[in-house]
Amino acid sequence: MTQYDYDLITIGAGSGGVRASRRAAALGKKVAIIENLRVGGTCVMRGCVPKKLLVLGSHFADDFEDALGYGWTVGEPGFDWSRLITAKEKELDRLEDVYHRILKDSGVEEIFGTGVLADAHTVEVDGKSMTAETILVCTGGWPKMPDIPGIKHAITSNEALELAQFPKRVAIVGGGYIAVEFAGIFNSFGSEVTEIIRAPQILRGFDEDARQTLAEEMKKKGIDIRAETVVEEIVKDGDGYLLKLKDGGVLDADLVMYATGRAPNTHGLGLEEAGIALDEVGAIKVDEFSKTAVDHIYAIGDVTERLNLTPVALAEAEAFANTVYRDSPTAMDYANVASAVFSQPPIGSVGLTEDQAREKADIDVYVSRFTPMKYTLSGRDEKTMMKIIVDRETGTVLGCHMVGLDAPEIIQGIAIALKCGATKDQFDATIGIHPTAAEEFVTMRDKRPAPGKD
Ligand code: NDP
Fold first, then answer.
1. Whose CA is closest to atom 16 on ligand 1?
2. End-to-end CA distance of the chain
């Protein structure tokens, strides 16, 4: 045993922290993990998991309608928001118990409280000091909102996931993942939704065809996307709110939600005092092995603002354990990480966008748009878009994007092909599964004319 209380103290019991702690404990290390909220972190308690449950729940609205086209007679469907929220909470409680159990079974000691660094080997929790040879910071992020008058009236995704009452009119500010996902949830459950974005289009950074397709489909569903619109003030108005816009307009809503990005949780942790460098957005600066400016202190997950996705935090945790405890320095590979937006319809995406690919190579682009088979009989007016971006010289597939039913499920498989460096010829040599939407990825043959050449 060293002169320290623990081999590893992990601050933050989200996906990354729990995984790294379990791995270290499995390798015989004495580990403590400190958490001041619920074990499971953002993804399990305040993000991906509860959000996906609400997306799944809201989709039944379409499913009841679509059933008519298949001969079903569906009575007037009723919906009880509080029953859904109660069921969702029960599932989160179950998952939290699972997390407590796996930590216990792995021999990781859980400590409830806020961990603050006192020095490079010492953490204080509510006045109690403890030392460790290695410290891992994975405190995640937290929603951030602009400081405008009346912002106190707005909620974030944290509160949106546990609203006591279902709102009739919702205004959502922001055009990122969270904003479009909640616009879809509220819209499908029957709210009137206005999404206010300061940019000309939703989902900056995504492929243009994906952005445009999703925006069109959202509008068809009745979501009012107000582009290039800025909220200057939020005023309480009876039971609702007035949003005063920069262009002089006014919007009213029963609920105002801001999804204007997340900030790394680095404040008040004693990081700078311990000599840990932060970047301009307050994220912890780390090297390729997730080591901070201080030896023995590492950081992974959203607090480092590299690629804020749960599976990336898990992979960073594995790389940390290999580096520190298996004598096998491992740098995380961020290439071709697939991601999804659980909008309605959803987006799946892997590799480069068309704009990014054009910067790097001469490319060919293949795009297909079609009505999914499910909607032929139901008559739903919703299109699927699929796109493949290919390096013209090498034939390597650089990016695949899809908007439509099952896009995240389909793109997960396609991501394996991209990770293996697949070429368009290999996509074409793959026999499709018929009849599926996914087969379109191996049957697209017509290149889209290059810009300015049609
Ligand atoms: P994003 O950074 O994705 O989007 C923020 C949005 O808010 C952008 O549209 C941005 O506009 C806008 N915005 C920022 N500041 C202001 C402001 N002051 N006034 C008005 N609009 C503003 O953040 P999210 O909160 O949506 O998501 C946070 C992170 O969570 C993401 O980075 C993602 O990694 C993760 N996440 C992943 C999910 C998934 O994988 N399915 C789901 C949900 C979250 P502009 O484009 O003009 O900058």
1. 260
2. 72
**φ/ψ (deg, to 5) at 271:** -65, -50
With a 6 A CB cut-off, is 125 part of the ligand 1 pocket?
no
- The answer on 256 and 270 residing in a single domain is no
Q: List the CATH number of the domain containing 163.
A: 3.50.50.60
Please check whether residues 394 and 343 belong to one and the same domain.
yes
pTM of the model: 0.97
Query: Same structural domain for residues 131 and 73?
Result: yes
Mark whether 375 and 284 lie in a shared domain: no
The identity of residue 443, as a single letter, is T
Q: Ligand 1 centre from 305 Cα, in Å?
A: 13
pLDDT category at 2 given cuts 50, 70, 90 is low
Q: What is the CATH number for 349?
A: 3.30.390.30
Quote the ligand 1 centre to 144 CA distance (angstroms).
10
pLDDT digits (tens, 9 = 90+) for 220-261: 999 999 999 999 999 999 999 999 999 999 999 999 999 999
Compute the Cα dihedral for 95, 97, 99, 105 and give only its sign: negative
In which domain, by residue range, is 158 found? 151-260
Tell how far the Cα of 173 is from the centroid of ligand 1, in angstroms.
10
Helices 81-106 & 48-68 angle (0-180, nearest 10)? 140
| Nearest in space to 42 (alpha carbons), one of 337, 301, 392 | 301
Q: From the CB of 258, is ligand 1 less than 6 Å away? A: no
For this structure, is 153 an active site residue?
no
Q: What is the largest CA-CA distance in the chain?
A: 72
Say if residues 164 and 326 touch (Cβ distance below 8 Å): no
Q: Is the CB of 145 under 6 A from ligand 1?
A: no
| Sign of the four-CA dihedral 85, 88, 94, 100 | negative
**Rounded to 5 degrees, what are φ and ψ at 286?**
-135, 160
